[in-house]
Amino acid sequence: MARLQKKKSPADKIKTKVQDSEGLAGDSGIEGADRREDSTTQVSNQVAKVREKLGKSSPPAVVVPGEPNFYQKSVQFLREVRVELKKVTWPNRKQTAGSTVVVIILVFILAAFLGLVDFSLSKLVQVVLA
């Protein structure tokens, strides 16, 4: 199970350390809010330092935990469809033409059979009602 868990980035580790050391969960009131703002600034500074060390100077993307929105779901669906379509073995031109001919012949055979049954039953009904 541990293999499937996502590894934390250095920035996430720093955030966790700062939050744990200051005990943000139990803070309340104005003093707690001030400490939260200070710790948020500290975390941002530490994240920026880590990013500089890693060579990423761009601002961090905003990641909102929870369920993805409609656009993200749609994009993910289309990616999965593309992957699945790559796995499909498509028929060549000869196979497609052969299958089409078989379908057309079966349609004519079934149409003739149903036409014969319909004609027979309509004659039977005429005989019974006459």
How would you characterize the overall build of this protein?
By secondary structure, the chain is mainly α. It has a domain at 8-67. It is 72% helix and 0% strand. The N and C termini lie far apart (79 Å).
Name a few traits of the molecule:
72% helix, mainly alpha, 130 residues
How much beta, percentage-wise? Answer: under 5%
Low-pLDDT regions: 24-29
Shape: elongated
Helix count equals: 4
Alpha carbon gyration radius: 34 Å
Largest sheet features: none
Percent of residues in helices comes to over 70%
Span of the ends, CA to CA: 79 Å
The helix/strand class is: mainly alpha
Average pLDDT rating: 77
Helix/strand order: HHHH
> What's the total count of β strands?
0
SSE topology sketch:
Layout: H1 10-22, H2 29-54, H3 70-87, H4 93-129
